[in-house]
């Protein structure tokens, strides 16, 4: 369920919840995956967030809106000592990730299929090493800008749950949303933009696997920006 704040703002930060009907094997993977990977927010978070995972992880990172899960799964496989919480309200995207996990189970992943704000409000203070927000819905019409996930309210949430020095990474192919994010982070004052020259935001992050959405944007002539912010105060 969307938070009260989202309802007052005119709706949740995400758009549609479902695309094409799931195939039988996707439905089965989705149901099995909920039992194995679902993040239960009905209980209090553990004092040590790393204990959410069967794996012996050293830190925890959050990806909000993982789409088809290309980046989330790549990072989880690449870094078994890091715990990853993935949030995706779009059921088809969640089903795709759960189908992949059925073929290759990972014990350093937890998933949540509702509004990312719910997870942010549930997490303990200073519990995350990083937050990733890649290609979020840009809500291009001005009347919908209040539904953009990057806002002063959500940046305050990020600031609370990130450890000092923790990273917030934002990628988008929508220039206005990139500029919006730079201004919002500057206005907040608690995030340092890590860029000395244009290559620092034009080049993908180290080890970046790419995503299907990014590939589509490039085909259509839109140039992505890859921003990095450090929690500074």
UniProtKB/TrEMBL annotation:
Keywords: Methyltransferase, S-adenosyl-L-methionine, Transferase, tRNA processing. Substrate binds at residues 141, 173, 211-214. S-adenosyl-L-methionine binds at residues 63, 88, 115, 137. It is an enzyme of class 2 (transferase). Pfam families: Methyltransf_4. Its EC number is 2.1.1.33. PROSITE patterns: SAM_MT_TRMB. The keyword tRNA processing applies. It comes from the Bacteria. The keyword S-adenosyl-L-methionine applies. InterPro entries: SAM-dependent_MTases_sf, tRNA_(Gua-N-7)_MeTrfase_Trmb, tRNA_methyltr_TrmB_bact. GO terms for molecular function: tRNA (guanine(46)-N7)-methyltransferase activity. It catalyses: guanosine(46) in tRNA + S-adenosyl-L-methionine = N(7)-methylguanosine(46) in tRNA + S-adenosyl-L-homocysteine. Pathway: tRNA modification; N(7)-methylguanine-tRNA biosynthesis. One of its GO terms (cellular component) is tRNA methyltransferase complex. Coiled coil: none annotated. Belongs to the class I-like SAM-binding methyltransferase superfamily. TrmB family. Catalyzes the formation of N(7)-methylguanine at position 46 (m7G46) in tRNA. This is tRNA (guanine-N(7)-)-methyltransferase. It comes from Mesorhizobium denitrificans.
């Amino acid at each position: 369920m969307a938070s009260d704040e989202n309802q007052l703002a005119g709706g949740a930060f995400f758009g549609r919840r479902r695309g094409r009907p799931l195939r039988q094997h996707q439905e089965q993977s989705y149901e099995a995956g909920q039992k194995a990977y679902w993040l239960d927010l009905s209980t209090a978070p553990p004092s040590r967030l790393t204990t959410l995972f069967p794996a012996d992880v050293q830190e925890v990172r959050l990806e909000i809106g993982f789409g088809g899960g290309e980046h989330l799964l790549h990072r989880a496989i690449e870094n078994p000592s890091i715990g990853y919480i993935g949030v995706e309200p779009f059921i088809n995207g969640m089903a795709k990730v759960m189908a992949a996990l059925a073929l290759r189970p990972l014990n350093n992943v937890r998933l949540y299929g509702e509004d990312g704000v719910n997870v942010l409000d549930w997490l303990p203070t200073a519990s995350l090493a990083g937050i990733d927000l890649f290609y979020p819905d840009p809500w291009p019409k001005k009347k919908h800008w209040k539904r953009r996930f990057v806002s002063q309210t959500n940046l305050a949430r990020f600031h609370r749950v990130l450890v000092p020095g923790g990273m917030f990474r934002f990628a988008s192919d929508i220039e206005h949303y990139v500029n919006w994010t730079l201004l919002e982070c500057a206005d907040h004052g608690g995030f340092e933009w890590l860029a000395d020259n244009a290559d620092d935001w034009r080049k993908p992050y180290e080890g970046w696997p790419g995503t299907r959405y990014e590939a589509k944007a490039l085909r259509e002539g839109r140039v992505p920006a890859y921003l990095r912010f450090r929690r500074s105060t």
